[in-house]
């Protein structure tokens, strides 16, 4: 379940502070995207962010503006991209190391604390490389109801 978006004043103040702390000029569009994505732990697609911006924006905000803003936030370390599947990118506002569940029934993405996942070993790295990070997406779906006549419980 996503975290609710904070009230307008608190979210706007927090968004402005986050942008200013990272040396990003707080334009109206950047502030609105930051309010939606960066003020609480969230996993949203660009399309979800665009829809939310357009619901509340006083003027037109283009898809390009939202994508450029998201790229800026990713580049500045404020958000990261999760490529849950080849057709969908989710922007994650939680920057500490963690992993994800992706519910295939709802497309909802939720966090898994890094301490909840252990690796027995990793493959040998290509020569001259080092591990920068490991991102795990565990895809889940609802179990199918057991058929009483098939012998399963």
Summary, kept brief:
This protein has 153 residues and is of the alpha+beta class. 31% of the residues lie in helices and 19% in strands.
Structural class comes to alpha+beta
Oligomer: single chain
Number of strands: 6
Strand order of the largest sheet: 1-3-2
Mean pLDDT: 88
Q: Which geometry do the CA atoms define?
A: globular
Number of helices: 4
> For the terminal residues, how far apart are their CA atoms?
29 Å
* Beta fraction: 15-25%
- Which percent bin holds the helix content? 25-40%
Enumerate the spans where pLDDT stays under 50 for 5 or more consecutive residues.
none
Largest sheet: 3 strands, antiparallel
**Elements, N to C (H/E):** HHEHHEEEEE
Rg result: 19 Å
Explain the overall architecture:
This protein is of the alpha+beta class and about 150 residues long. Helix content is about 30%, strand content about 20%. The protein has four helices and six strands; from the N terminus they run ααβααβββββ. It has helices at about 10-20, 30-35, 45-55, 65-75, and strands spanning about 45, 80-85, 90, 100-105, 110-115, 135-140. The strands form two sheets. Strands 1-3-2 form a three-stranded antiparallel sheet. A three-stranded mixed sheet has the order 5-4-6, with no helix packed on it. A hairpin with a 5-residue loop joins β4 (about 100-105) and β5. α1 (about 10-20) crosses α2, α2 crosses α3 (about 45-55) and α3 crosses α4 (about 65-75). It is globular, with a radius of gyration of 19 Å. The mean pLDDT is about 90.
Helices and strands in order:
Elements: H1 8-21, H2 28-37, E1 43-45, H3 46-56, H4 63-75, E2 80-85, E3 88-92, E4 98-103, E5 109-113, E6 137-140
Parallel strand pairs: 4-6
Antiparallel strand pairs: 1-3, 2-3, 4-5
């Amino acid at each position: 379940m996503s975290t609710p978006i904070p009230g307008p004043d608190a979210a706007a103040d927090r968004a402005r502070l986050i942008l200013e702390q990272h040396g990003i000029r707080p334009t109206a569009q950047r502030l609105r995207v930051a309010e939606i994505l960066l003020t609480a732990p969230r996993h949203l697609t660009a399309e979800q962010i665009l829809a939310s911006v357009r619901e509340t924006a006083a003027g037109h905000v283009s898809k390009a503006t939202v994508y450029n803003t998201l790229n800026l936030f990713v580049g500045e370390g404020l958000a990261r991209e999760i490529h849950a599947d080849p057709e969908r990118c989710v922007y994650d506002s939680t920057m500490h190391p963690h992993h994800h569940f992706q519910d295939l029934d709802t497309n909802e993405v939720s966090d898994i604390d890094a301490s909840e996942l252990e690796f027995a070993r990793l493959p040998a790295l290509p020569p001259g490389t080092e591990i920068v990070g490991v991102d795990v997406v565990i895809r889940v779906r609802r179990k199918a109801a057991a058929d009483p006549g098939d012998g399963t419980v």
